[in-house]
Description:
This protein is α/β, with parallel strands linked by helices. It has two domains: 4-128, 3-Layer(aba) Sandwich (Rossmann fold), CATH 3.40.50.2300; 139-209, Orthogonal Bundle (Arc Repressor Mutant, subunit A). The chain has helices spanning 13-24, 38-48, 64-74, 89-98, 110-121, 129-137, 154-164, 169-176, 180-194, 199-209, and strands spanning 4-9, 29-35, 52-56, 79-84, 102-105, 126-127. A six-stranded parallel sheet has the order 2-1-3-4-5-6, with helices on both faces. It is elongated and about 50 Å long. The termini are far apart.
Amino acid sequence: MKQISILIADNYTLLRQTLSHLLGSHPEFEVVGECASGQHAIEMVKALRPSVVVMDLNLLGMETSEAVKQVKKYSPGSKVLCISQYTQPSYFRKVMRAGALGYITKNSPKEEMYEAIKEIFEGTKYICNEMKNILCNSFMTPDNGAANIASLSVRELEIIGYIRKGLSSREIAGNLHITAKTIEVHRSNILRKLQVRNSASLINFINHEFPE
């Protein structure tokens, strides 16, 4: 089986070397390069066309969201996995909107990093469990505490974001290029998982508990 080629972009030499060792020792991965700055990452992406770019959120000389955009511009086939010490939703949203396909925190175990790389290589978005819990907890009430937070999918989190903006199921379907019927199924699953009674309650709850 062909190995997944990986470029590592991180400010700190020790962290780059640690990641390189962890990923290079995995039989399914091949580390093809390392760099410390956003500009160097772009240059290496152009030359190497890696399958996955593992990118820290604090690159030298360039905002990470811009680096992500440049990676997608010059190597559309390269998938970006951001690794960050930050768990604030604003950081997560910014890089995902820029084109990153995955986000894990530095508290994530190596097994979750391996899983994230394999998932985004296949084209599936990946959010680590810690970040997923934080995103969900930001609009959970005490009464919802028993809900299975980790069971929410990336797609369901995307739909919650659109609901928060006031979009209808048809409008959300248009943005996500799926059917309105599929959106309704996701909405039903969201209500069940978050233990919210109905769509109106969900909308009111998001507007009150998850402000801009």
